[in-house]
Amino acid sequence: MADFEGTALLTPSEMARADELAIGQGRTGLALMEAAGKAVADAVRLNAAPQPVVVLCGQGNNGGDGFVVARRLAAAGWPVHVAFSGHIDALPPDARTNAEAWTGETLPLSPDALAGCAIVVDALLGAGLSRDVSGDMARVIDAVNRSGRPVFAIDIPSGVDGATGAVRGIAIKADRTITFFRKKPGHLLLPGRGQSGRLSVVDIGIPGAVLETIGVTLRQNTPELWSLPPLDAGGHKYGRGAVMVVSGGLLNTGAARLSARAALRIGAGLVTLVGSRDALQVHAAQVTAIMLREAAGPEALAEAIAAGKIDAAVIGPAASVGETTREASLAILASGVAAVLDADALTSFAHTPDTLFAAIARRPDRPVVLTPHGGEFARLFGRIEGSKVDQARVAAERSGAIVVLKGGDTVVAAPDGRAVINAHASPLLATAGSGDVLAGMIAGLLARGMTGLEATCAAVWLHGDAALRHGRPGLVSDDLPDLIADAMAAITPASLR
Ligand SMILES: NC(=O)C1=CN([C@@H]2O[C@H](COP(=O)(O)OP(=O)(O)OC[C@H]3O[C@@H](n4cnc5c(N)ncnc54)[C@H](OP(=O)(O)O)[C@@H]3O)[C@@H](O)[C@H]2O)[C@@H](O)CC1
Ligand SMILES: [K+]
Fold it and tell me: Are residues 228 and 172 in the same domain?
């Protein structure tokens, strides 16, 4: 996977380390704070005409940034007051220097401090909360959220946990958030993403090279992270990879068909639906370019994989929960093809997860991708503590597979600890069959020869992009495969299409 440093995400403790490393390389904390405050003041001035501003300052360096913003806006002629209830002497040194340099009005931190102001700057808390928000601070945050006034949050909306995206008690609902150096996981994970409004990242003088020292392993999913394989002018259909999708029974064929259509659209050379004769008769009435092959039972599946020169297989969409799907999944894993296990295939191992993980461990050379939503994840892995990223990482390590923990903030994690958060998504994707399409897309890219993590991240991004392209209520999963071509074209130079 490309090591594009712009996509790195820093937890609050990694960000503190980045500050430290920058300071060790000759920057001063005061200079970083000045740059941070300047960037926020500039954002306010760029987005609004001069009008009364209240800067809500907390007890730490986030508050210190707030004092810089207040000073700079006042120097530009804006009417500004600060609301602050702490003791200046108790502030960390750089914040204290800036609080002492503030010569304008300071009111106690309370909802009354909002009176007469038109814009709120939130400098109450940074990304590394040590507890839930309560008391006066909670009352002020509630008043800000009810006031309807535009809010500029410094670094992160106060109350959002920068590591997990959780709202700790209550959090500012910002219109804009200005963060420094790199985004934090809490800007992308839900509900934090929804609290942040429009997010911008500004350079405050921390050298990018510190990322290597920190050893960042979490990234945001963007097309910089992966590249789709170019089409070979002399290529034939087998060169573009063959996908097999296991069908559900007679009355449950639609989900597998969605996967198959998606695999073909994303560029697999050949796609075959396999299942019972009666299920195939339903498919036969619906598909044209997709092939059909009768195969019932694990041996027949293994034969179909060998005969079809299959590169990647999908099992799970409406496959039914139980022994049949369990055995079929194990046959696919034993065959050694790249495998995507989704939906019912995951739930079929709810009581025997170790059997699944052992089967994955026996074939370390070819990727296995598990694509659970929250419920399927809990059934397979039980309760895992921590953020969504922590959970996906633990599950990937335990299973030996790439784990896609789906949702509006899908997290992809690999067994080696690398993880990616996808925010390129649409609420329109919360519709029946959307996951079946994703499973087919992943398999299609695996068959085309992409590595496990790249194929998965690319599919997740393109899946989100397809829905964003549609962009209006009424999207159904049947629409998604036909939007994949445009999504791919938009990120592929014309010469490589
Ligand atoms: N470092 C640098 O060089 C640079 C840093 N920069 C800026 O610094 C910010 C990070 O600063 P920070 O680490 O001081 O954190 P911040 O949240 O402001 O204050 C911590 C205080 O809040 C308190 N507290 C915690 N949770 C609470 C709660 N729920 N409710 C109430 N209080 C709570 C906590 O209390 P304690 O845990 O000690 O009891 C402690 O007193 C960062 O966001 C960026 O804006 C930029 O200037 C660039 C240079
Ligand atoms: K803040």
Answer: no
Identify the DSSP state of 135: H
Between CA 449 and CA 25 the distance in angstroms is 42
Assembly ipTM: 0.98
pLDDT digits over 344-400, tens only? Answer: 999 999 999 999 999 999 999 999 999 999 999 999 999 999 999 999 999 999 999
Q: Are residues 210 and 354 in the same domain?
A: no
- Centroid of ligand 2 to alpha carbon of 155 (angstroms): 5
In terms of domains, do 336 and 424 share one? yes
The count of structural domains within the chain is 2
**CA 172–ligand 1 middle distance (angstroms):** 15
End-to-end CA distance of the chain: 21
Pocket test for ligand 1, best of 20, 30, 62 (most atoms within 8 A of CB): 62
Domain that holds residue 12: 5-216
The half-sphere exposure of 57 on its side-chain side, counting CA atoms within 13 A, is 35
Residues with CB under 5 A from ligand 2 (ion): 122, 153-154, 158
- Ligand 2 centroid–CA 387 distance in Å is 20
Same domain, 205 and 228: no
85 confidence band (pLDDT: 50, 70, 90): confident
Q: Which ligand is nearest to the CA of 22?
A: 1
The answer to whether residues 193 and 254 belong to one domain is no
265: CATH: 3.40.1190.20
Q: Name the nearest CA neighbour of 493 among 228, 221, 241.
A: 228
Ligand 1 atom closest to the CA of 162, numbered from 1: 43
126 annotated as a binding-site residue: yes
Q: Is residue 350 located within the same domain as residue 465?
A: yes
Tell me the residue type at 491: I
Pick the ligand that lies closest to the CA of residue 94.
1
- Picking from 216, 235, 253, the residue at the C-terminal end of a domain is 216
Closest to 66 (Cα-Cα) out of 38, 30, 107, 86:
38
| pLDDT (0 to 100) of residue 496 | 58
- pLDDT mean over 268-280: 97
| pLDDT tens, residue by residue, 103-159 | 999 999 999 999 999 999 999 999 999 999 999 999 999 999 999 999 999 999 999
